[in-house]
Amino acid sequence: MTREAALEKLNTAYSQAVANQHDMLPYVPVFAEYAELCNHITEFGVGPEQYGLNSTMGLFYGLVQSTMYPKKMVCYDLIYNKHLDFLAEIAPALGIEFQSVIANTADNLSIEPTTLLHIDTNHCYLHLMMELETYSSTVSGWIFIHDTSGKYGNWEDETIDHPSRKHLAGDTTKYGMWACVRDFLAVHPEWALEAQHTEGNGMTI
pLDDT band for position 8 (50/70/90)? Predict the structure, then answer.
């Protein structure tokens, strides 16, 4: 595939991701804007197939525009999203090394140093805190966290007494995605809040 053909396919797919109705709707261009400043991107949580590719498409699109080299993007999720086949197909022609990994971020993964990390996995204080504590040191630029406002400001995918919460280290009474971000920042002065968006279910950078 030529670069021109790959770009044409990507531009069409990106336009669709921007126009689609989904909870990432306001943020696809924001992902692209920041990704353009990166050469390595890591994503935790691609999302289910029925929603297509939204954050992933924005990140990939921006990475293509970047003038930093070499370029690489690695996506992690518990279940493979077949739409990633499209990015794997066009990536070589666009000069990007693209990988998709089936894994659980709770397994203390060994990930490469990255410029930008996007987190959209288990919406649970303890899980998010584990991810931030485990992986933030590998990030040189920005951490994006989806679902930090609206119902997720003080709500989780799992109740406080849910059995899976008890497998995570920490105070099981801690609750809420935004509370987690706030508490993490309070003890990590090397990180600062850049933006807290509230559209949809929110996005914190």
Answer: very high
